[in-house]
Design a protein that fits this description.
There is one protein chain. The chain is 13% helix and 27% strand. It is of the alpha+beta class and 413 residues long. The chain folds into 2 domains: 15-200, no CATH class; 209-411, Alpha-Beta Complex (Fumarylacetoacetate hydrolase, domain 2), CATH 3.90.850. The strands form 5 sheets. Strands 5, 6, 7, 8, 9, 10, 11, 12, 14, 15, 17 and 20 form a 12-stranded mixed sheet that branches. A hairpin with a 2-residue loop joins β5 (105-111) and β6 (114-122). It is globular.
């Protein structure tokens, strides 16, 4: 990756397993994607056998950088003891939930009976959910408030993800006083079948939705413009956010509705003037976004200010989950199809400014707070630069997908 401030991902996972995607995304005709590669991460205990404790830099109390980067980055570390007082390097019988090895997939959903939004965990891409709001009643129902309480929230989420079959009574001996109570998946009472849940945008009330333009080399090439020397920042209003399988409303005010699949970073830790080397410590995880755009309003009207063309209601489908760990955020395939026809097919290694560079740049101007969303730009293949141009019409189905993160699918109405 080239360009001023460009950053490539570092590290990776040593051991990998492949698990089937449980269920499929059938909502609005969007099929599931087959199989998911889930990391069996040994880096949390610094190598050797997987353990139940976490290894974190003293300057990274949240462990964000560990989740999103992998590997060792500092000699000055502390080991946080695992549950049940087991020796370091041993596997806690319930510390490796099947289908959630090393990562959480945080979601918001509404159950079959309706009611308000609830927090949950997706067992695997396209799989059943764990109702965090039921398993951990002390947690807030708002994802932004959940992030604001800090590491304690993730601690509770992790323990609720523990499956009962990972901690058999015969081997575990009941674990009196264990801080990881047998609940959620073991009892089954907090599992929600995927078909009985309506997935919502994982964040519905962020303080800021920050966007980046012209941030893929191939996207600059398709419109014959120079690679920018500094990130091009604009914004959407939070009211543009809609769910991963909700409708995109085609405004009557535009005839040039376009798609843009994007990697979105979710801020988990407050910061201002963040150093690039420490930027990933402020990122909770990643999700999929579609930066829907009205090109006439973006490029010709409103004095060519981008805001109105980018922020109509429903112009930011988001989801399906916030994934707290990926092997290398700067090496993920990223795709968009319309009515089954592939329109965008690229890789995040073509980003001009990587996630750390973007976080550092934006924090020069504004304070980043938990729940802020950073859309990192779109690759080549948008409709406006095709010859002839292609725009969305009512009835079209737009499918955006990113490796490791999942798929969103939205019908235009």
């Amino acid at each position: 990756m080239t360009g001023t401030g460009a950053v490539t991902g570092t590290g990776g996972f040593r051991d990998w397993g492949v698990i089937p995607w449980i269920g499929s995304i059938r909502d609005r005709g969007c099929a599931g994607l087959g199989a998911a590669r889930i990391p069996w991460d040994r880096t949390e205990t610094g190598g050797g056998s997987p353990g139940c404790g976490f290894v974190r830099d003293r300057g990274d109390p949240w462990g964000w950088a560990e989740r999103n980067r992998g590997g060792r980055t500092s000699r000055d570390r502390e080991r946080i003891p695992g549950p049940c007082g087991l020796p370091r390097g041993r596997i806690h019988p319930g510390s490796r939930p099947q289908g959630m090895l090393g990562a959480l997939r945080l979601v918001r959903f509404r159950g079959a009976a309706g009611g308000g939004p609830r927090l949950g965990l997706e067992e695997a891409p396209g799989g059943d959910l764990v109702d965090l709001s039921a398993a951990e009643p002390e947690l807030p129902r708002s994802m932004r408030e959940f992030l604001e309480i800090g590491p304690r929230g993730l601690e509770l989420a992790h323990r609720s993800a523990v499956p009962g079959n990972a901690r058999p009574e015969a081997k575990h001996g009941g674990c009196p006083g264990c801080p990881c109570p047998r609940r959620a998946l073991q009892s089954g009472q907090h599992r929600v079948p995927r078909a009985a849940a309506q997935l919502l945008a994982p964040l519905g009330d962020p303080q800021k939705v920050i966007c980046v333009g012209l941030n893929y080399h191939d996207h600059c090439q398709e419109q014959a413009v120079k690679v920018p020397k500094e990130p091009l920042i604009f914004s959407k209003f939070p009211s543009a956010i809609t769910g991963p399988f909700d409708d995109i409303v085609h405004p009557q005010d535009t005839s040039e509705l376009d798609w843009e699949v994007e990697l979105a970073a979710v801020i988990g830790k407050r910061g201002r003037h963040i150093e690039e080397a420490a930027a990933l410590q402020h990122v909770l995880g990643f999700t999929v976004a579609n930066d829907v755009s009205a090109r006439d309003w973006q490029m010709r009207r409103n004095g060519r200010q981008w805001l109105l063309g980018k922020t109509f209601d429903t112009f930011c489908p988001l989801g399906p989950a916030i994934v707290t760990r990926v092997p290398d955020v700067h090496n993920l395939w990223i795709r968009c199809s319309v009515n089954g026809q592939r329109m965008q097919d690229s890789n995040t290694r073509h980003l001009i400014f990587g996630v750390p560079a973007l976080v550092a740049w934006v924090s020069r101007f504004v304070t980043l707070v938990p729940g802020d969303i950073l859309l990192t730009g779109t690759p080549a293949g948008v409709g406006v630069f095709r010859k002839p141009p292609v725009f969305l019409k009512r009835g079209d189905e737009v499918r955006c997908e990113i490796q490791e993160l999942g798929t969103i699918c939205n019908r235009v109405v």
